[in-house]
Structure formats: C-alpha cells, structure tokens
Amino acid sequence: MFDKNYLLPSEALDRILSVISAPFLSDERLKIEECYSRIAAVDIVSPEDLPAFSRSTVDGYALNSKDTFGAKDTIPAYINIRHEVFMGASPDFEIKQGEAAKIPTGGMLPAGADAVLMLEHSQVISPDMIEVTKSVAPGENVIQKGEDIKEGEAVITKGHKLRAQDIGALAGIGITEINVFKKPIVSIISTGDEIVSASNSLNLGQVRDINSFVLSGLIMEHGGMPAKKGIFKDDYEIIKKIIHESLNDSDMVLISGGTSAGAKDMTAQIIDDIAGLYGGGGVLFHGVSLKPGKPVIGGVVNNKPILGLPGHPAAIVVCFNLFIRPILEKLSGLNGKNLDKSIKAKMAKSIASAAGREDHIRVYLEKHGNELLSVPVLGKSGLITTLVKADGIVIIPHGKLGLDKGEEVTVKLF
Amino acid sequence: MFDKNYLLPSEALDRILSVISAPFLSDERLKIEECYSRIAAVDIVSPEDLPAFSRSTVDGYALNSKDTFGAKDTIPAYINIRHEVFMGASPDFEIKQGEAAKIPTGGMLPAGADAVLMLEHSQVISPDMIEVTKSVAPGENVIQKGEDIKEGEAVITKGHKLRAQDIGALAGIGITEINVFKKPIVSIISTGDEIVSASNSLNLGQVRDINSFVLSGLIMEHGGMPAKKGIFKDDYEIIKKIIHESLNDSDMVLISGGTSAGAKDMTAQIIDDIAGLYGGGGVLFHGVSLKPGKPVIGGVVNNKPILGLPGHPAAIVVCFNLFIRPILEKLSGLNGKNLDKSIKAKMAKSIASAAGREDHIRVYLEKHGNELLSVPVLGKSGLITTLVKADGIVIIPHGKLGLDKGEEVTVKLF
After folding, report:
1. Contact B253, B241 (CB under 8 A)
2. From the list A36, A168, A194, which residue is nearest B87 (CB)?
C-alpha cells in the first residue's frame, strides 16, 4: 500500500526548505510590551552597563576587604562605621582604611569599598564600631558594574524568539522599543463541495469546515498570522483564482480538503499551472510515506510555499507538525534552538506499523502510580475527537514495525 | 544557612491552595475564534451528530456488503452500477440487492448501502458493471453517523483549556460561541527606592524595573491578565494603599522587590494588617527552603492570594513556576492534566546543592552528537542574563546533595 518510491516526510520538507530563501519578511518597530514571543529582527546591543554601578547583594557593611584579612573568632577585626548607603542614591563619601558603611541589598558600593560583609558575620559593639569575625574576599557579595550586561554587548541576537526574561533584560538596559520581524501571513483556503461554514445549518450530505479552525490555532501558536480565505467549490478556475490571489497577499498558502483522488490531482495541476505563470517552481512532492497525511502536496511558487493538505483533521495536525511548522519558523526568521516540548512515557499497549512509512499515533497520557502511560487513541483519522482526546503524538519511524507494550516513547505534546 | 524549620516549596504552595476556594471567576461569551487557549466555563454538549450522516472514507462504490461475501480473484462478484453519489448532496435513490453507486471520499452513504468497496478492489467491465474480487465487511470504509460526536455528548468539559483541535471540534458541530472563564487579573506592584521605569534615564544608584516585564510575560503565557500598578517607594503607607487597591480590582496580587530585610518584614506586616481589616487571612508562610527564592512571602486576604517576591530575576522565575503558576491555574478554572513540558538531558558537569533545600538550577542545552547536554548557567541569581542564556531549569530536590556529571535530568523548558 505504501510505495517505496514515496519520499520520507523529512526528505519532502527538505525539498521545500532548500528552495525558499531569506530574506523573507520586513520588520516592524514595537514597544517591548508587545514583543513577547516575537522574533528579534536585529542583534540588540546594550547602550550601557547593567548594573550601571557595583551593587551589594546582601544587607551588610561595605568595606575594603583588606581590612578583614585574617579576621576570625579568636582574632576579630574592628571596623569604624562612618557612613550609610541609601537605596537608589549615590554615596557622597569614600571608605577609608579601617572604615565601613552600612549598606542594604541592592545599594551602591561607595568609593574605596571592594566588598560587602554580611550582617550575620559581624557584631555591633558600639554605635559606630563593629567586630568582624570572618574575612571577606575582594568582590564578595557584590555584583560588579556591567557584570550582568556590558555596554556594547549583544544581549539578544537576530532570530531569537523573545521570552519573558528577554523582555525583562531589555527593560533593564532602558530599551523600550525594538525591531521584530513581521509575522508571516498564512492563507487558509478550504475546499470541498460538501463543506459549509461553521455558522451554517447543514443539509444532508454537507459537513462544516473544521480544518480552518484547527490550522488557524496552530498557526497563531507558532508565530504566524492566519488569513482565512473562505470555502471554495472544487472547481479548477475558482481554486486557481483564490490561490493566485493568496500568493499576492500572503507569505504561505495552505489548501485544505480535496481528499478525493480527482480533487488532489487538480490541486497539484493548479500549483504547476500557476508556477508556469511565474516562470518557475511548482509541485515538489505529491504524497509521502506517512500515516496519516500520505496525500500531502508540497510546492513553491515565487519563493512562497504552497501546501495541499489532506482533509482529515488528524492528517492536518500531523502535516502541520512535519511541514507547516518548520516552514513557518523559517519564514518567521526564527534562528534558535528548536526544542520540541515532549515528555517520556511508556506505551500502555503494543501497536503495529507498516514498514517503510512513518506512523504518527495520537495518544493520551495516564498516570498510574509513578508511571506515565501513553495510551493510543483509537479511531479513524477523519474523526476530530481522536485529537480532542489526545494529549500528543508518538512517532513510529519508517524503519520500525511498531511499538511494544511497556516501551519508552517520547510524546510530542500538543 | 537553611533552617530545617522552613517549609518546602510544595508545603508552602499547599497552604495557599488549601484556603482559596472556588468559584473564582465569572465567565464571558466569546466567538470560538477568540477562545484559543481559554478555559471552558461549562461542559459543552453537542446539539447534533457528527457526521450528521454516514460518510465514505475512500473513493469507491457504496453497496450492500452481503453482495460481496465470498468474492475473490477466482470467484468474483458482479455488481450493477446504477447511481452516483455527489459531494455535499443527499442521494435521492436507494441501493438494491446486486447494485452499487459510485461514491467519492466524504460522500454520503445512500440508503440500502452499508459499506464502501475501494476503487482499487474492483474492475470496471462495462459502463454499468464492476467485477468485485474482495469481500467487504459491513461498515468498511464508512464513518457512521454520530461516530465522531453523538448528539447530547459532552465534547468539551468545564475547565478544559481549548486547543486548536478543540475549537475545530466545536466548529464541526456548529457551535460558534461559547462561555469561557474570564482571565484572572494579576496585579504587579514593583517596590524599591532604587527602582525606576524602563523608560527613565538612570541616576547613579538607580536600576530599572525588570521584574514587572518578566512577570507580565509569564502571566500572559499562563492565562492571566497582568495589571502593572507601577513602581512604589518602600514606605508602609504607600505600599499598604496600593495593595489595598489591588485587592479590590484584581484576583491576585504580586509584590516584587523589597529584598532587604526591613522591606521584607514590612511587606509581611502590611499583608497581616490588611487581613485584619478584612477580618481574616494574612501571611501563610515567610521564607521557604528554596534557592533562589528563599525569602518569598505567601498569604491570602479576602480569598485572594498575595505573594511577596524576592527582587532577583532568577528568583522571580522560580517563584513563578512553583507558586504563581499553580495558583493562577486554580484561579483560572483550569481543570486539566498538568503536563509540564520538559526534555531529558545529561548533566554536562556535576553541581552541588545544600541538604534540606530545593535548588533550581538554570541550564542551557547543547547537542553533542546524539546527546543532549544540560549545562548549568553560572552567575548570581541577581543577573537577568543568567535567565536570558538559559533554556530551562533543573530541580535538585531537598533530599539530594547535588547532581553528578552525566546524570540524566529533566529540564523544565521555559
């Protein structure tokens, strides 16, 4: 049933990735508050040191560490408390030999001091003198000027996806606006003579559009901007017109539906015909060794990826993970580690797979005592509820004939 | 240094979770397009069967399976093709004994038919007759009416976080608006005499507010709505007033900063004093066996959680994961499996931990051939760049004295 001549999913993906080339998207300048999960469009270099001054990390006494050398319980050192450092203020005094200043956590180290003695390691013996019973090393309990970020250092590199802490770092160095890549716009074209809108009532024989809602959510989750183009009849001219329009106003085009043999061939034909108008590109693969998702079509026209997706919801999700997500990430300018979020679990039952194809099994997770079990969700890939019940996907590679009960697997979480 | 009498983080969390009680939030009615990642406020019951009719899953012939029983290469069955099913239409004919109708994938099964024969298993021998060389089981290649979702079935249960496929399932049954819980509003109060806004230029001794940006991002990521209240001086009356206001207009209150001993005690005092005004509640813990994050304060006033957070960014992130996130999830009505997204890796070097405390180590991940290494990020917890460089956190439990080089660990990814 699975032709050895079909490509593996990874080979199919490579065909698309290798022909689309940067630069893809222009950038936009936004306030950092709006940049969570966005991709930095340039290296962001610090205009200043963070912190801008050496700070204490404890409540204690700022002093010259030399004055404490050799101090211990039996031979304490005695230090004069001459000054106090206040939060948020620059000390207007200098620490001289044998002197110290009271300093709070976060306070600025005064001139002449090179370390902070923790309150706990001193004894107040008079209002202006402490006994020190432990020596302090130079730099101890101090964050040095520029220790966090140095002026001129690249804090964020181009292509980095900005997390909460990255935005925090930018705030810390006074950068309140940055350039991020615009989000790739992904057209979603729903096709099928039987498909009607979710808000429609149904005639017998009709079904509502599910896939555009699934695709929209996944696209948003992975940094894209979905553009639903609507539902179209399986007609050469109609589909060709909307694909052509979508190539003009978006960065990637998805055609969902067309599960029947005739419809699939028509989608491929239209992609090639439009490529002809642009003078190049076209279909790069038609069918892969994959279940579910075998009939997927991939192509590129005018440097823009086009995918023809099978109509089954489970196939849509599998094709999203295997093809759409990596393409979207390349288009979006992402240049980071791609750490797939996953969890280890043990198979609750054995499951077979045909040789030569990659099987994507929907599973849900169940805790049994200390063990996490991965339970296959049964049901045809055309059933949306198989995805609703699932927590993630387990992949059986093409060289493997199945999974054994009790075998440890990696579940890619939704 | 760590008092055995301090609570473990999990014990501290339980103190808060056990005193805040549902119901927390009212709900709002939104279009399903706006409900990705939102929490269902009610069970959502299907008004209809999905599909509303039995459908073919292949291109082939709809027939009565009995007519194919015993058919094989040597003894084929012969069937009359009398009709054709069109996509999106209800067949206006009935399949009689010895008859079949051409049917496309997704087509509606006509009356009288109970299965579909795949095109591949038949041979056209005249325009109105096929030869069948394989028997078909009843129901084969058919999705039955209601097989995906049955009328009256709960598709989504209250407390479920809606993913792309869940929204798709709702679209499939014609539900275009649903009730979801409102997002919990989380006040963020930044305190510290040295703290200024990110947009300010700095005087010596001042630092910019980093933590409110880190907290806002994490709160949004986990379903809350951050409400930044601004930056306030470490003054009893000022802080008391803003906490009081925040208790009125939000569902949870975070106070960031106040790292010095005096400031910490003041925050705890204010929480207890305000609790007095409400006639109950107050501080539930002050300090936990945790690094970084030891000085965290937790309390509840008027059924609303209040947390006093240490000023160091790394401590903020650790306290978010251990305390704020689970509290936020309870407040948000989430009632799902809590699958922490994580990845297994091997420690690149050994690292020590003090007995009796839980250590949260920032790490970055590095691929070495087939091995994923977890490399500790060095640097004080006051440095925001230790978080910028990190990909996640490894926890050393309180009973463990450290991690060995090569030891397998679970990295909780950011």
Report:
1. no
2. A194
